[in-house]
Amino acid sequence: MQVHTTEELSDSIPEKFKDVFAISNELNAFFNEKEYGDDLQALIICIFCMSPKHASFFKLRKPKYTFQGKEYVYDGMEVKSEDRSFSYELRLDYDLYNNSDDIKPIIVSDMLKSLDIINTIKKIKDFDLDRFKNDFERFFKLKGWI
């Protein structure tokens, strides 16, 4: 299984998230050889933390499940999106993150809670969410974030 994170952040806050995105490849490597079911092979968590004065300009993206990847051209290159992938936007409390010295335990908690959205997708039937969440939490414990 693949696990990726993307970000949309206010200009004033990226420094707080540098550790989160620095371990993105490690997170993906941790899950790369693991299987949790046939219906979900790639998870993309879009982390959104924007100041309230700017957040209103960005429409909340709906969760999206793609059973069969699509081919498209991006920057002149042919690209294929992943089969059985799910992406969703995780909107974070800007003030909480902006005022926190150490966001690591907060982001892990928010990400763990957000994973429950997988259960709302009717097309994802064969996926062991409990085992996935346990492994997700274990990864961050191994990193010393919780």
SSE blueprint:
Blueprint: E1 2-9, H1 18-22, H2 24-32, E2 42-49, H3 52-55, E3 64-66, E4 71-74, E5 77-80, E6 85-91, H4 94-98, H5 104-114, H6 129-142
Parallel strand pairs: 1-2, 2-6
Antiparallel strand pairs: 3-6, 4-5
Strand order of the largest sheet: 1-2-6-3
Q: In percent terms, what proportion of residues is strand?
A: 15-25%
Continuous helix count: 6
User: Main beta sheet: strand number and arrangement?
Assistant: 4 strands, mixed
Radius of gyration: 16 Å
Question: What is the strand tally?
Answer: 6
Gap from first CA to last CA: 23 Å
Mean pLDDT reading: 93
What does this structure look like?
This protein is of the alpha/beta class. The chain has one domain. The protein has six helices and six strands, in the order βααβαββββααα. It is globular.
In short:
The chain is an alpha/beta fold. It has helices at 18-22, 24-32, 52-55, 94-98, 104-114, 129-142, and strands at residues 2-9, 42-49, 64-66, 71-74, 77-80, 85-91. β4 and β5 form a beta hairpin.
